Amino acid sequence: MAAVPGPGARLRIDERVLGAGTGPRFVTLLLLMLTAGGAMILAVFQVLAHGDQDGCSLAAGVDLSDGSYWNTSLSISGQATAARFCLSLWAPAPPWWQIAGWPLVLMVAAGLLFAVLPMWKARQSRVVPLEAVDQSGELRSLISELCAVAGVSPMPRFVIDPAATSVGAVVFGRTRRPVVCLHGGLLVVRRSDPERFRAVLLHELAHIANRDVTLTYLTVALWRVFLGLVLLPYLLCLGYVVYSVVAGGGVPRMGRPAVLALVMVALLYLARSDALRSREIYADLTAVRWGADPHGWSVTAPTPGGPVRRALDSFTELWRTHPQWGLRRGALADPAPLFRTAALPILLIGTVPSLAVPQVLLQIAQYRVDFTNNLMTLLVIVPGALVTGVIVVALWRAVVYAVLTGARVPSGAWAGGCLGAGMSAGLVLSGFGAGWAWLPQRPPVLLVPVAAGAAFGWWVTQCARLWTGAARGRTLRPALASCVAAASLAMMSWLTWWMLAGAANLNRPAPSAGMAARAILAWLPSEAPAGDLSTIPGLAVVQPQLDNIAETPMGALAVTVLWVVPLFAWASGPAAGTPRWVPGRTAYPEAPAASLRKVLRPGLLGGALACLAVAGVQAYLHTGQPVPAGRGGLYAYRYLALLLSALCLPAAAAAAVASTADRRYRLLGALIAAQTTALLGLAAMTLLVSVDGCIAPLDVLSDSCAWRPAWHRPLFPFDFVLNNALVLSALAALLIALVTALVTASAATLPGRRRRPAAPAPGPAPAWGRRVRTAVALLCAVALAGTATQGAVGRYRLGLTTNEITSQRRLVQFWGLPEPHLSDAARARQIRAWYRLSGDDLINLAVSYDRQLSVVIRAADATKEPWPALNRTVLPVCTSWGRAAWFETVWFRVPADPLLRADWHRMVTWADTGNRGCKQALEAHDNDALRKALLGLRSAARCAETVNTGIDRVLRAGGYPGTSRRAATGRTAVCDHPPAAEP
Fold it and tell me: Do 449 and 502 contact (CB within 8 A), yes or no?
């Protein structure tokens, strides 16, 4: 294979130069089938169970006509304990074995169908053995000759389908036990068109040699099982729901679940078609390489149409299981279509994580699974790795093809942008972060994945281009594997951040500066605040994003591998002569990368500057050091902000210099230099913070000298600084590389500007090469070890769960619970749901406690019982009232009516204070205190009666029956305020 085509020559590239990524595409299809099937079957189970999820939402105060995500999420999350209690009573989850066992059922069914399909296709009523029509053995001899040419041994079983009139054949079964079925029409033309017969047969043998028979029929089996065991029950269930709505006089609507199901089915079909379609072109090319006549694929070509017709043809091509003949003929002359990255398939593959992860969350959320960052990290591992494998392989193939043909190397930004657009589209379709509304409240946030995807694609293509010149083996697979591993880690970290922070930012209102200041004071407490944090400009916008970065598991490690992997390639230097992986070992047209010194030198100089800047920050803050009690709050926060500036600004300067080292690798050079700078600066920061108090002019947090590791020091969040310094430095490198590329491209278009001459051929390796490689290896080892350790510790900390009630209370204290403006009808529906589902039982319990108390008090007054007897009679009643103190936790607050909500809260407060006072008085034998506590419990009962009366009034006004308990009147329906001193 020629590396550089001559004038007018058309270079042909062997399609086997790099793997096609068929395996990841098949596993992606399997993942989509399992997640879509699980979500759709869960919907079937829920309909069959006749649960009342809407009732629980109404009882929580959710306005079902409000499609926003944040108000709904906050109403549920802020009352998570009550929500779980309600769902466990009125919408219980299906037995776990149904959800967990359904994927197993699908897999077993697919396996059985895969085993049965070959037998069904080869049944005697349809096909006949080859010997039945080849009495002379001439056909078998020809087939044996072709099998020898193809290297297929042993010879597969051949059968004939005499009823098939097409001039074709098909191979089915398994790769190790294939069956080739020759159509009757093909045997008819065997003598009149022997070349076509040979081409068709070699094409089918190529499927066997390419080992795609098993994957093909597994794909077919999976699709048919999905249709029969998932889609059909779902459609029947959907029809039942529509019938119920119409029978009740309503108008059915196609909500998001139905649309999402349609999208998932379409994605499954497209993934199936892609897996089946690509194998045909590879089989064509293999057959031609074995000597098949390309004219065997000659058919009448359709008349080319206009742009609209061509666009329509491109779209319909995605749905075909066999490529069009025009595409197949073109691939025989030039396999460029196999190396091209199409926008729509990449966009569709980008929807996979955003659709699959929410569906899995929906299935496991019903089983009291603690939702943590670590859980999200686990959930994104499989879809993140699959998506990365598909996109990285596609971009590497495009780069390799461009490098070997001398064509323009794609930047990868367009393909990556399509990938990110797919992630945004998938998130909107799934409703994860958009509630019931089709569009989020802050649509510009959806552009973040597009930008991140473009940067991801840019990094992959530059890394691929660098490794193609540095790889020394006979294959590019080890280099590709290193790139896939690094990109997968980055993708998982990104997906974790996007599914947690990004989705929340789509609809969550920005916190106020006061809210952010309170959160910082809880994080960096100070007994003597030195200033008002809320006055810091941009605090409410910047601080939540910094917190999100700091809480992303493995974020620092992901950034580290993104510069370590290309640094290894750069440090390896260009391969001597033509790389061994190039077929034919002809001239390699790509010039070597610039000297590594041009990248490391700015990083080392920037690191020295960062060390000085960190020391300067220490000295500056020492001049205004407050008393020890005041070193949190604003003082500690200013310290963190200045440290981040001291680390990121020198990193940006180093990236600006390194981005000019080699225009082909601007992003990689800027990233390596920026991260080297940040790493050295972090090392200096860690040392100075650990010995804080030992160098008087640089003391910031301590006054006494001792070794206090920075990662264990109070008022110094080491993980926060480390994660943000590395991530912000990487973002700065990306932006600077982009600006440099745009400025250079604009300058190149100026009239009269001369083009830069081509880089000279690589000379002998410099004498210092081994020392540089050793230093690079040490730098990479330190960076990987440090960030991996920090990531593991961070994951452990994020995985620790806190008390649910405590977390719930903190959420409500920070954000509050929403108070939507409701119509009278919506108000009555919410209060009715609250009362009907459990509120009436709680009110009746409170009244029953009061009856027990009245009986005990009358008996005590009549008999003048001594204290031991009172302990036996009164204490159980007080203990029962103590349970009422939890009514506001285990059940929702009263929705829609602030007055009733306040009375219910007073009931809970009276019950709590009365219960505790009763127990203390009985222990102290204090008659006055006991009388006061019992009066408090009577006040709690009156508050319960007041709530019952108010609910009865609202229900009757809304057209519903009143409460089961008769509304109280007079003094009984008056809820007293508890004493101000009581909690």
Answer: yes
| 436-444: Cβ within 8 A, 24+ apart | 436/66, 436/67, 436/72, 436/255, 436/256, 437/67, 437/68, 437/69, 438/67, 438/256, 440/69, 440/506, 440/507, 441/68, 441/69, 441/70, 441/506, 441/507, 442/505, 442/506, 442/507
Answer for the pair 295, 195: CB distance below 8 angstroms, yes or no: yes
747-770: pLDDT as tens digits: 766 665 555 554 444 444 444 467
- Starting at the earlier edge strand, list the strands of the sheet with 178-183: 128-129, 157-161, 178-183, 169-173
Q: Give pLDDT, residue 768.
A: 45
- Beta pairing, strands 157-161 & 128-129: antiparallel
Residues found in the chain? 983
Structure tokens at 248: 């009740």
**DSSP per-residue letters across 195-241:** HHHHHHHHHHHHHHHTT-HHHHHHHHHHHHHHIIIIIHHHHHHHHHH
Q: What is the pLDDT of residue 9?
A: 42
In this structure, which amino acid lies at residue 369? V
Q: Give buried/exposed letters for 486-507 (b at 16+ CB in 10 A, else e).
A: bbbbbbbbbbbbbbbbbbbbbb
Q: Which residues of 697-707 are buried (b: 16+ CB within 10 A; e: fewer)?
A: ebbbbbeeeee
Instruction: Give the pLDDT of residue 760.
Output: 47
- Cα separation, 126 vs 648, in Å, equals 72
Q: What is the mean pLDDT of each run of 10 residues along the chain (983 residues)?
A: 40 61 73 79 79 86 72 72 85 80 87 87 78 84 89 88 86 87 88 87 89 85 88 86 77 71 80 78 84 69 62 74 75 74 83 84 72 76 89 90 85 93 86 69 86 96 91 83 93 88 72 81 79 81 86 87 92 75 67 88 95 95 86 89 95 95 93 95 94 89 88 88 94 95 79 52 48 80 85 68 54 61 86 92 90 79 64 83 86 88 90 89 84 87 90 91 81 64 38
CA dist., res. 272 & res. 216, Å (int): 9
- Distance (Å, whole) CA 66 – CA 72: 8
Q: Which of 963, 911, 898 is nearest to 942 (CA)?
A: 911
Side-chain-side CA neighbours of 290 within 13 Å: the count stands at 28
Nearest-angstrom CA–CA distance, 902 and 508: 27
CA distance 905 to 893: 8
Tokens of 579: 């790389």
Q: What is the residue type of 19?
A: G
Contact between 633 and 525 under an 8 Å Cβ cutoff? The reply is yes
Token pair listed for 480: 């590709």
| CA angle (603 as vertex; 602, 606 as ends), nearest 5 | 80
Residue 428 CA to residue 445 CA, distance in Å, equals 11
Beta carbons within 8 Å of 134's beta carbon, 6+ residues apart: 140
Q: What is the largest CA-CA distance in the chain?
A: 119
DSSP 166-195: SS-EEEEE-SSSEEEEEEHHHHHTTTT-HH
Q: Identify the pLDDT of residue 982.
A: 40
Residue 49 tokens, joined? 């169970």
SS3 of residue 25 by DSSP? helix
Residue-wise DSSP of 821-858: ---HHHHHHHHHHHIIIIIHHHHHHHHHHHHHHHHHHH
766, 760, 88, 708: which is closest to 366 by C-alpha?
88
| CA 66 to chain CA centroid, nearest Å | 26
pTM: 0.82
Q: Is 64 helix (H, G, I), strand (E, B) or coil?
A: coil
The three-point CA angle 828-831-836 to 5° equals 115
Contact 317, 327 (CB under 8 A): yes
